[in-house]
Specification:
The protein has two domains: 4-120, MutM-like, N-terminal (N-terminal domain of MutM-like DNA repair proteins), CATH 3.20.190.10; 134-266, Orthogonal Bundle (Helicase, Ruva Protein, domain 3), CATH 1.10.8. It has six helices and ten strands. It has helices spanning 4-18, 117-120, 134-145, 151-156, 166-175, 189-206, and strands at residues 25-28, 43-49, 52-57, 61-66, 72-77, 89-94, 98-103, 107-112, 242-245, 254-257.
Length: 271
């Protein structure tokens, strides 16, 4: 699933292409939305909210999308768009200059802009939001401290803070030397604040780059500390990197970690 930095870049490209322009194409190939008439409406902005994309129109409507695992928005010049008959296409939104093609989108909605909270109101502080500051970071820490989940699952719970996925959760926990399964509620506030700070920095550093990197090296095989490096040596201690599901659930996500650097014995659990 794309991380918050990837979604941020997608929304920014869409905003640069459409903000201020009138829609000349609008084909939402989604149950209940196929008859929506949006042609002639002007785009106010396309904004990210965590992993959600909000295409706001001057008419008071918002096209909401979520990429989930395989979704994508691709921009093409309007005169090169063609008939677009691919069955994987879920949405086509265009202006006189650009056409955005939404393929394999995980979620697509059309709601009144005033009702956006129905779709994104549950989200916690946005790691890449324009309002992110010390108060937002503190709120994220409070949310995590109240979570009944292990710290990795708590960070992935978008209700606590929005934008983190398994890539940056794995990397931030490694840098912060936190065991992914340590109960979030047992960690002291300084450790929670540190991992939230690392998440924010990692996402912010990568919004300008298509190749994600936590190490600062974007060459193949050198981009990350633990993510995608199962059984390869830890960059700190040489222990083979582990890749394990966060729970016993069939849909449990896999987290990458160093079994030595991130052992429970290395944690401080005093509050």
């Amino acid at each position: 699933m794309p991380e918050g930095d990837t979604v941020f870049r997608v929304a920014r490209r869409l905003n640069q292409a459409f903000a201020g322009d009138v829609l000349t194409r609008a084909d939402l190939r989604w149950p209940g939305l196929s008859t929506a008439s949006l042609i002639g409406m002007r785009t106010l902005e396309v904004a990210p909210r965590g992993k959600h994309i909000l295409h706001r129109l001057g008419s008071g409507w918002t096209i909401h999308s979520h990429l989930r695992m395989d979704g994508m928005w691709r921009l093409v010049a309007a005169d090169k768009a063609g008939p677009l008959r691919d069955p994987a296409i879920r949405a086509v939104v265009g202006s006189a200059s650009w056409v955005a093609i939404g393929r394999r989108l995980g979620v697509l909605d059309l709601v009144r802009t005033s009702d956006e909270a129905i779709l994104v109101g549950h989200l916690g502080p946005d790691l890449l939001g324009p309002g992110w500051d010390a108060d937002q970071a503190d709120l994220a820490v409070v949310n995590l401290a109240a979570s009944p989940l292990g710290i990795a699952e708590a960070l992935l719970d978008q209700r606590n803070l929005a934008g983190a996925g398994t890539v940056w959760t794995s990397e931030a926990l490694f840098v912060a030397r936190l065991n992914p399964w340590a109960p979030a509620a047992t960690l002291n506030r300084e450790r929670l604040r540190a991992v939230v700070g690392w998440l924010h920095r990692l996402l912010a550093l990568n919004v300008e780059h298509a190749v994600q990197s936590s190490t600062g090296d974007r060459r193949p095989g050198r981009e990350t500390y633990v993510y995608g490096r199962h059984n390869r040596p830890c960059r700190r201690c040489g222990t083979p990197i582990g890749a394990d599901p966060l729970s016993t659930a069939a849909e449990a996500r896999v987290i990458f970690h160093c079994p030595s650097c991130q052992t429970p014995s290395r944690l401080s659990t005093s509050r």
